[in-house]
Amino acid sequence: MASSLSDNDSTTVELPMTKVLIPGSFDPLHLGHIDVVDQAVELFGDVVIGVLVNFEKPSGLFKPAERVQLARASLGDRRSVTVHAFGGLAVQAAAEVGADFIVKGLRTPNDFDIEQQMAHINHSVTAIRTVFLPCRSDLGFISSRFIREIAAHGEAIDHLVAAPVAAALADRFAGPSH
Ligand code: PNS
């Protein structure tokens, strides 16, 4: 499938399909992430979600293999999207899958500050470019950290995540002592 744009004469212009890597912790994947994945599919065509280690938060709630499984289940039958775990750097994951660009979703100006630095450092290593996509405004408040905290205290998170993640969180925090 190629991406397409319409010009002013309503002629459809086919664009060559591009492969992008969306790296992140995805602990767990939430509706804000899914919005960015859908934007990337629309713009580029072929999307690889990379579950990577954020060295500032190495121990997570879900193991990498669980995050992959939950992301796959949450994304349903999006056929041009694949999900894989990677052990090293985002630039190494991008090279391994043959990604043309890295894509990152931005929620806030604070996100931009951090992501701009990471985009420059990644470009300095392998010359890969990063494309920023603004998260949908009504989903920009969602973060995996808040979801983990809310679920740990027994409040509903079904409006923030897809059903498989909601079920996994309910299971993880079931019982009086978790
Ligand atoms: O969802 P997050 O935690 O904001 O994602 C951050 C992540 C995992 C994309 C970032 O920490 C990352 O790229 N980790 C892999 C190691 C790496 O490439 N670090 C950046 C260059 S030092």
Your description of this structure?
The protein has 178 residues and is of the alpha/beta class. Helices cover 40% and strands 22% of the residues. It contains six helices and seven strands; from the N terminus they run βββαβαβαβαβαα. A five-stranded parallel sheet has the order 5-4-3-6-7, sandwiched between helices. Strands 1-2 form a two-stranded antiparallel sheet. Strand 6, helix 4 (109-126) and strand 7 (129-134) form a beta-alpha-beta unit. It is globular and about 55 Å long. It starts with a strand and ends in a 6-residue tail after the last helix. It binds 4'-phosphopantetheine (PNS). 4'-phosphopantetheine is lined by residues 23-25, 52-54, 89-90, 118, 121.
Question: Could you outline the blueprint of secondary structure elements for this entry?
Answer:
Elements: E1 3-6, E2 12-15, E3 18-24, H1 31-44, E4 45-51, H2 64-75, E5 81-85, H3 90-97, E6 101-106, H4 109-126, E7 129-134, H5 144-152, H6 163-172
Helix pairs in contact: 2-6
The structure holds 4'-phosphopantetheine (PNS).
4'-phosphopantetheine binds at residues 23-25, 52-54, 89-90, 118, 121.
Write a short abstract of this structure:
By secondary structure, this protein is of the alpha/beta class.
Structural class by helix and strand composition: alpha/beta
Task: Summarize the main sheet.
Answer: 5 strands, parallel
Rg value: 17 Å
Arithmetic mean pLDDT: 92
Q: What is the 3D shape?
A: globular
Bound molecules: 4'-phosphopantetheine
The stretches of 5 or more residues where confidence is low (pLDDT under 50) are: none
